Amino acid sequence: MNSQAVLVDTHAHYNDLVFVRDIPDLRQRAQQAGVAVVVCVGYEVPSSRRAVMLAQKYPDVYATVGVHPHDAEGMTPRAWEALRLLAGEERVVALGEVGLDFYRNLSPHRVQEQVFRQQLDLALELHMPVVIHDRDAHDETMEILKEFPGLAGVVMHCFSGERQMAEECLARGFYLGVGGTLTYPKSYTLGDIVSAAPLDRILLETDCPYLSPQPWRGKRNEPSYLPAVAEKLAELRGISRQEAAAATTANALRFYHISLPALGI
Ligand SMILES: [Zn+2]
Ligand SMILES: [Zn+2]
């Protein structure tokens, strides 16, 4: 792994059922591609539980736990209790993904907003960073986040806003999560944003099994494809791949409070 730069996939869904039989192969391919750490992101209680189990089983996997806006309507008192317990488990590094999705609208807006706020409260209480999902709900997401100024860290995963929103996120200390969409030919806005943002505020992610980078677009995504995103970032900023990898890996470890003594970082 020395000759190639080490990467962290800051947002992957190893807990997705499409991967259920493939984890050993996926991990091996990720390691071969230099992706040393994968953060497995929960999206409701069962997937959060699977994320925790994977993280406790595999040394290269960490977990986040949370309820996606799609599933906001299913939050029962029992589910809250389960989520709270999972958040306290070993190797859980953040709350997420939480937020608003006004594109697919699988839960009513008011319920999405309520469950989002409640999870931000939990993040504050537990001093945990949060992974934000925002689709077609930029203004509402930014407004709600304003109510929680003391969060331990915020990443706008799969950032899809305009430049002005990016500037506001950066001014508030948020990180921008960037994945396969950066490699798509028409990603001019995202390309501009990523070129101009401070390098120490960019996190790389696959969001696999979704959003494969360009060479694999339309196919199932996986962490071993992350170098294509790092390469695009390097190209856009006119820096070396090593530099892009070193910076984004440092960002990921700082954001999630992960240390990798085996790699000397
Ligand atoms: Zn998401
Ligand atoms: Zn996701």
Descriptors:
265 residues; alpha/beta; TIM Barrel; 8-stranded parallel sheet; 9 helices; 8 strands; globular; binds zinc ion
Task: Give an overview in words.
With 265 residues, this protein is α/β, with parallel strands linked by helices. The protein has a single domain, classed as Metal-dependent hydrolases (TIM Barrel), CATH 3.20.20. 40% of the residues lie in helices and 17% in strands. It has helices at residues 23-32, 45-57, 77-87, 109-126, 138-146, 163-171, 188-196, 226-237, 241-256, and strands at residues 7-12, 35-41, 61-65, 92-101, 130-135, 154-156, 175-178, 202-204. Strands 1-2-3-4-5-6-7-8 form an 8-stranded parallel sheet. Strand 7, helix 7 and strand 8 (202-204) form a beta-alpha-beta unit. Helix 2 packs parallel to helix 3 and helix 8 (226-237) crosses helix 9. The radius of gyration is 17 Å and the shape is globular. It starts with 6 loop residues before the first strand and ends in a 9-residue tail after the last helix. 48% of the residues are buried. It binds zinc ion (ZN) (2 copies).
